Amino acid sequence: MSTPEAKSDDGFIALFQRLPIACLLVRVSDSRILAVNPSFENLFGWSTAQLVNHHSRELPLWRDAEQRQFFLDELAQSGSVQQHETEFRCRDNSLKPCLVYIEHLEINGELCRLSMAHDMSERIASEQALVSSESKFAALFKDAPEPYVLFEKRSGTIAEINSTFTEVFGYQSDNVIGKTALEIGLWKYPEKRPATIEKLIRDGRLRNEPAELLTADGRVLHCEISSNFVRFGNERRTLTSFKDVTEQKRIEARVKHQAYHDALTDLPNRLLLNDRIDQHLAFSERYGLSCALLFFDLDHFKHINDSLGHSHGDAVLQEVSQRLLNTVRKADTVARLGGDEFVVLLTGLTGTGDNIAEQARTSAEKLLMAVAAPMQIEGHSLQLGCSIGIALAPTHCNSAEDLLKYADTALYGVKASGRNAIALFEPHMQVVASQRLQLETELRLALQQQQFILHYQAQIDARDQRIIGAEALLRWRHPEKGIITPGQFMPVLEDSGMILDVGHWVMREACRLVATLLDHKAIDPDHFSVSINISPRQFRQHDFVQQVAAAVTDQGIPAQCLKLEITESMMLQNITDTVAKMQQLRDMGIHFAIDDFGTGYSSLSYLKRLPVDLLKIDQSFIRDCTHDSNDAEIVRAIIAMARSLKLELIAEGVETREQLAFLQQQDCHAYQGYLFSPAVPEQAFLQQLGQTVKPAAKA
Ligand SMILES: Nc1nc2c(ncn2[C@@H]2O[C@@H]3COP(=O)(O)O[C@H]4[C@@H](O)[C@H](n5cnc6c(=O)[nH]c(N)nc65)O[C@@H]4COP(=O)(O)O[C@H]3[C@H]2O)c(=O)[nH]1
Asked: For the segment 272-302, what is each residue's pLDDT rounded down to a tens digit?
């Protein structure tokens, strides 16, 4: 004991000194302080020397006199003070919250008061922290942007819901508090709940557990459940958030769907088709079945697209996709690979090789007829042909890649030999296809290595043998095969789109020739023009007019020295756009010739609308006009038509004097053909211009 006055009772002394609670001993008879223990010194900062032997009234510990009196009264009344919360003053003048116990006891025959003070600072601080964190939690819970529910941990009943929960799920607090999630019918599949609860108990929490939940009005929401156990004072709760991911799921599903489907028709796209083929090939192999892949191409679809516009084109594609879907079995796949390319995968075919081929052919015929049936598209009555190439698995191959490739090869065969037909893949087709691929590769190289050149075929006025123009004709100077004419490569240039680059080059090259001729004063710009052939794809480019204008201005030549040859069928495609483009070019001074006139529609009404200057009578009529009365009649009719429309005329492919004489009789004096000269290289043409113009002897 810290005081010498406290004698005897060793047990009590040892205990008094060691007690972790602050203790003060006062003799009742004279209210003198007998002792304080080290815990007391530590807690309040007063030393034994400062207190012992002092009257308890002088104790600097008291907050005020009333406080001391209160304890004395309480002691007198109850015999002891139990757990009384108060504050005592420390040596540094701060107030320390304490829980006070005061008892009477006898020490060495003297009645004493033992006062014990338990420090409450930490507990009060943590209680305050709890209050503040609870209020923070309450605010967070209430205003959280996610639906939250506090469940009683033991019973699983709802203790509280936040406003977002009400907003999202439509439940009002009053209707759900005290009930379990099951009782309010939150779970769409209640049988899944036990596993979720089990997981929560096992892991002590849940993180983004997927669940389908029901709103108060029965809508299904895809949610992610996260749960934690929390404790508020003595209460144990489960704090659960129900994140509504319905929209996110919908977007994810849509993105996934879009990745595997064609946006216009909603049919499977190439990716999904490949996947389906792979699946069916594996299945077929296992069960000894066969598949047939039908590759479709709508004949002249581009024509519809161009003449009626893209919205009509889209409507046609949608109609075709519906017809295909309606014609095949549910287990079969109809896919669109883009443009007008459709694929049908027929699966589960049984039988021998020939039999399978027959089944595929029969289905293809049905599909061809379905597509060919007349369709009404936004007031237009249309009828489409289509070509179908077929490949079989396992007869022809056993991979998705080969199946598509072989069916495409068969399709190419159909297209090459006239359209609107069906062809089954045959190995020799592969040879043709690879030759075509080889040609395409070589043509790309030719373009890079500038192997294309132009030859020029003179156009003559038979009355004075003057060269009035030239047609620029494309040639490929092949490093090994020599000069190749366009008949052998033009379709590949067209199909591959290379014609755009090549056509652009032709235009600039022809303008360069005119500039050279003008420089050499070899021509009179008012009576000479170079004609170039324009391919449909080239003409349909949105900046075609600008391309022509640039070619003319870059070379600084008069625009009337350039003549563009377009075909009848090309003019009929999207007539509004055609007329607009022709008119703009016409306004610049460019002239237009209609090539191969007589082989197409030769419609007067169209001709009247179009800003055309010249008709070229196709060589097929000239060839026989001297001995075939029909052809002679056609030539006469064309000439009459041109006269009535006040159009210029030129006959092409004139090979004999008789043909020329016939034409001149009909008052058609302009011609080109072997009778005068075939198309020749630039230098040779320059010489022709310089020479006295005389028709050559009969070719
Ligand atoms: N039998 C016979 N044939 C004659 C006679 N006079 C000329 N020809 C040939 O008839 C074709 C006339 O050209 P086209 O009808 O515009 O027909 C051209 C044209 O449609 C196309 N073509 C040629 N060059 C180009 C070009 O630069 N661009 C485009 N888009 N097409 C071109 O290729 C087609 C074929 O061109 P080529 O083989 O050069 O064939 C040329 C020419 O060499 C003759 O008296 N008798």
From this structure: 999 999 999 999 999 999 999 999 999 878 7
Helix 301-308 crosses helix 310-327 at what angle (to 10 degrees)?
140
Q: Which atom of ligand 1 is least distant from the CA of 675?
A: 45
- Start-end of H helices in 328-450: 353-372, 400-416, 427-448
| Percent helix / strand / coil, the chain, rounded to 5 | 45, 25, 25
The reply to whether CATH 3.90.980.10 applies to domain 134-249 is no
Place of tokens 């995968």: 345
Atom of ligand 1 nearest to the CA of 538: 30
Same fold, 10-119 and 134-249: yes
The b-or-e profile of 562-592 (16+ CB within 10 A means b, else e) is bbbbbbbebbbbbeebbbebbebbbeeebbb
For domain 261-428, the CATH architecture is: 2-Layer Sandwich (3.30)
Supply the pLDDT for residue 698.
38
Atom of ligand 1 nearest to the CA of 616: 15
Contact between 285 and 394 (Cβ < 8 Å): yes
Q: Whose CA is nearest to atom 11 of ligand 1?
A: 653
Cis peptide before 20 (omega within 30 of 0): no
Q: How far apart are CA 34 and CA 524, in angstroms?
A: 138
Cβ atoms of residues 228 and 137 within 8 Å = no
The answer to whether 363 touches 346, Cβ cutoff 8 Å, is yes
- ipTM above 0.90? yes
- Left (φ > 0), alpha (ψ -120 to 50) or beta: where does 156 sit? left
Nearest Cα to 147, choosing from 61, 68, 240? 240
At residue 429, the 3 state secondary structure works out as: helix
In ligand 1, the atom with minimum distance to the C-alpha of 474 is 24
Please report which confidence band the pLDDT of residue 2 belongs to, taking 50, 70 and 90 as the band edges.
very low
What pLDDT, in 10s, does the model give residues 459-489?
999 999 999 999 999 999 999 999 999 999 9
CB atoms within 10 A of CB 13: 17
pTM of the model: 0.58
Could you tell me what percent of the chain has a pLDDT over 70? 95
Cβ–ligand 1 distance for 659 under 6 Å, the answer no
Nearest CA to ligand 1 atom 42: 679
pLDDT tens-digit series, residues 299-339: 878 777 766 778 889 999 999 999 999 999 999 999 999 88
Say how many Å lie between the CA of residue 473 and the centre of ligand 1.
Answer: 6
Q: CATH assignment of 454-690, given 3.20.20.450, 3.40.640.10, 3.30.565.10, 3.30.450.40?
A: 3.20.20.450
Residue 627: CB partners within 8 Å, gap ≥ 6? none
Segments making up each domain of the chain, as ranges: 10-119, 134-249, 261-428, 454-690
* Amino acid sitting at position 73: D
Q: Whose CA is nearest to atom 19 of ligand 1?
A: 533
Is residue 336 within a helix (H) or strand (E), and if so which, with residue range? strand 333-338
Crossing angle (nearest 10°) for helices 427-448 and 499-519:
40
**Residues 430, 443: Cα–Cα separation, whole Å:** 20
Closest CA to 92 of 36, 58, 41, 45: 45
pLDDT tens, position by position, 619-647: 999 999 999 998 999 899 899 989 988 99
CA 471 to ligand 1 center in whole angstroms: 9
Over the range 54-64, which residues count as b (16 or more CB within 10 Å of their CB) and which as e?
eebeebebbee
Domain covering 10-119 in this structure, CATH number: 3.30.450.20
Which of 352, 308, 152, 147 lies closest to 234, judged by CA? 152
**69 C-beta closer than 6 A to ligand 1:** no
Residue nearest to atom 3 of ligand 1 (CA): 653
Q: Determine the distance separating the centroid of ligand 1 and the alpha carbon of 474, expressed in angstroms.
A: 8
